[in-house]
Amino acid sequence: ETKNSLQTARLPPPDSSSIFSRRLSLSANFGDSRSLEYDFYRNSCPPAEQIIRTMIRRLYEVRPNVAPALLRLVFHDCFIEGCDASVLLDAVNGVRSEKDSPPNETLKGFDIIDSIKAELEAACPGIVSCADILVLAAREVVVLAGGPFYPLDTGRRDSSRAFADAATYGIPSPDEELRTTLASFASRGFNEKETVSLLGAHSIGVVHCKFFLDRLYNFHGTNRPDPSLDSGFLELMRSRCNNSHRTAPPESPISFNIQPPFSFDGLPLPSFNSSLPSSPEEPGMIMDYDGLRSNFGTLYYRSLLQGRGILYADQQLMAKEGTESWVRAYASENTLFRRDFAITMMKLSNLQVLIAPLGLVRLNCSKVG
Ligand code: HEM
Ligand SMILES: [Ca+2]
């Protein structure tokens, strides 16, 4: 299965950019033998995967929000020129980083990757790529958050540059219509079903008010809320995010209105206080649909059935029969969802990977040299 998804993932998307074609033709020169391998570090750094697992588990105990942070981070890396750790690079000498692009402004978890990298550099200097660390760390947090385990091949190499423009235009927008979202995923090889299952990642984490304020107060410039929103849920969201969050500068004390976390279905919440937005000036909604962590995914899809998706792009999954039927299926069959989510996470983690001699192993994940 890994092999198949890797091959699919290596097909050029319809809108393939020149950099992508360059990579593809270069790797094609070496034939098909160059691909990721199961346990790539078995000789060069045997404890690599165990180190990552142990560190993530320890971190998760004190900071459970590492789970959503890293799950989102791997998506934002792999979606832009593949899983090459390009998203981790800092700006240098006026060359913009992906971190600075608007869709990435609220990304978190860079420090976690850095500390894992430091540990791995101490154990096996110059061996384990940042790109592999990121996908492996994301796999661990999915399991900790109650999601499925999935096997991953390794041997990804890191990019030597960031793709700031590609990140600005290539990360899907939360306000997008369904067809645009589907086209964006299709261009990376994900069909409708796979797109619906990947969005199950929105079972955990936080959404800041600015990403859905328009839905609450001025949907598509109508001065009215989004009609697809359940009315009770609209009130709940408005109580979290008032209209002033639209214009208030981030440091404005006016925005201080965080309330205790709650669960959408009245389920008891675990102590997830640290998944509150990082600063009190940035209120938002907790996507902790899976209060008991036993059913990762189920409550996300059920909430879409009830018109309770937080982002417009989430709720849009109900706008078309093809995607709606998958929302229904995943809302009622958690085993099916877990299987499909595992497969699509493997596919996401294998997008456009760089294999030696392409790319490099960065010694510091946020710098090239
Ligand atoms: C149409 C596609 C998607 C859109 C428009 C979208 C948009 C967003 C937005 C706006 C946020 C809130 C960020 C914030 O408030 O700081 C968010 C959070 C998140 N997204 Fe997505 N996303 C999409 C797909 C995905 C996928 C495919 C994954 C992973 C496989 C993912 C994982 C996450 C996670 C885990 C969070 C919570 C982050 C945290 O709490 O730190 N998203 N997403
Ligand atoms: Ca990337």
From TrEMBL:
EC number: 1.11.1.7
Catalytic activity of the protein: 2 a phenolic donor + H2O2 = 2 a phenolic radical donor + 2 H2O
Plant heme peroxidase family profile domain: residues covered: 35-369
Keywords: Calcium, Disulfide bond, Heme, Hydrogen peroxide, Iron, Metal-binding, Oxidoreductase, Peroxidase, Secreted, Signal
Compartment(s): Secreted
Similarity section: Belongs to the peroxidase family. Ascorbate peroxidase subfamily. Belongs to the peroxidase family. Classical plant (class III) peroxidase subfamily.
Primary localization: secreted
Cofactors demanded by this protein: Ca(2+); heme b
Highest taxon in the source lineage: Eukaryota
Entry's cofactor comment: Binds 2 calcium ions per subunit.
Pfam families given in the database record: peroxidase (PF00141)
Protein name: Peroxidase
Function statement: Removal of H(2)O(2), oxidation of toxic reductants, biosynthesis and degradation of lignin, suberization, auxin catabolism, response to environmental stresses such as wounding, pathogen attack and oxidative stress. These functions might be dependent on each isozyme/isoform in each plant tissue.
